[in-house]
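Support case: zinc ion complex. Customer-provided input:
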Amino acid sequence: MKDKLIIFDTTLRDGEQSPGASMTRDEKLRIARQLERMRVDVIEAGFAAASNGDFEAVRSIAEAIKESTVCSLARANEHDIRRAGEAIRPAARGRIHTFIATSPIHMEKKLRMTPDQVVEQAVKAIGWAREYTDDVEFSAEDAGRSEIDFLVRIFEAVIDAGAKTINVPDTVGYNVPEQFAATVRTLIERVPNSDKVVWSVHCHNDLGLAVANSLAAVRTGARQVECTINGLGERAGNASLEEIVMAVRTRADIFPVETGVDTTQIVPASKLVSQVTGYPVQPNKAIVGANAFAHESGIHQDGVLKHRETYEIMRAEDVGWGANKLVLGKLSGRNAFRARLQELGIEIESEEHLNQAFARFKELADRKSEIFDEDLTALMRDEAVTPAPEQYRLVSTRFHSETGETPVAEITLSIGGAEKHARANGSGPVDAAFKAIETVATTGSELLLYSVNAITSGTDAQGEVTVRLSRDGRVMDGQGADTDIIVASAKAYLNALNKLHVGAERLNPQV
Ligand SMILES: [Zn+2]
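Agent response - structure generated as follows:
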């Protein structure tokens, strides 16, 4: 009988801290539902004290999710913990995850607390959290650079105070596998009450070792791994859920654990997260990259045809490839459209909203013969996610580009309800469109990132554009999708401007 490896997904919290990857409450809910469908054990839904929006997002997820535990992060102070406790109150199973820094450099420079004060604060934090739930997790922030004696001391104290999960994060992604695994083993051996808790790891990927470090720790006693879909997360990201789950499953001979994850939901989850955040998945990404199961070379293909196991260690269908079937077309009716949206977990608030969305679907179906789930996701994101009231809206566009001539864009925008026209030249039509927008919007935003990705295959595929803008030290990503990539680009630019216009400051804890 194998031990259970608890899969703790933090796409909605740590993943959301990727630059520009902020998600709306509805987007978070959809991802949470997909995580639940995938049978993830714990969903870290957010950091409730970060803002009212974060609080509402955690609470909505706590209300909606029945099978998975719903968790909120909280710093080890009373205010954060009470916000987290209130946010998870509706959950069938709720967890509070509290953390405090334990490395000498963080205690001294950031917290300005002595080690004694840090232990005392951590114990108090567990006490406040237990007023709301028995399921309390404690993280020693920057554990990877903390002194082992101090970790033993603080862990013993918080376990006595009632913590049920002890998380050892490699916050800055500094560890290497053998050494990190040894640290976890030493902690389990030396903390006197270590058998009363589940040991957890949370590894960052700065050296590309997040998955390797996590798996090495599983071999020495960790029974929870914190991870994200597509490895999303701060800087180089977190351990990727799909790699952890498939490594444990494929090498069952090596790992003494099994997960409860329905692996056929992995690729749909990956696509959803990629679309919602605008972070494309690299083609050679393990498990979920477009090439992950493409055996290109002739020798391999021959081998695979003769006997699959010659070259394939996993089956594409086991992780959900091929589930992307043709769903709708030009002749699909309103009911089929509504039913498919429901299956995708997309909420339609009113008949009027459905009519608008259906009209846009028909318009897309005129230009694109086959409509896939990804197209619907993009369509509905354009439809629903733009923050209301929209400050900037695209009314119409005209582009001209011809060999040997300077590209020109003419654009009509609605800015705060008033229509404005502009015309600009650029080095290409996209450049011209952005310049035209700035001519009238005059936001002074700086373009940090521009990327185009085809949502599905075929030349009639929708281009999905991500635009990252910075203004006054704030960074926002905007997304837009259209079969015309210049229109998609303009939409993405305006989406980012709208987010910059309404967005509030958020706290981003480094755990
Ligand atoms: Zn983290």
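The radius of gyration is 24 Å.

Case will auto-close in a few days if no follow-up is received.
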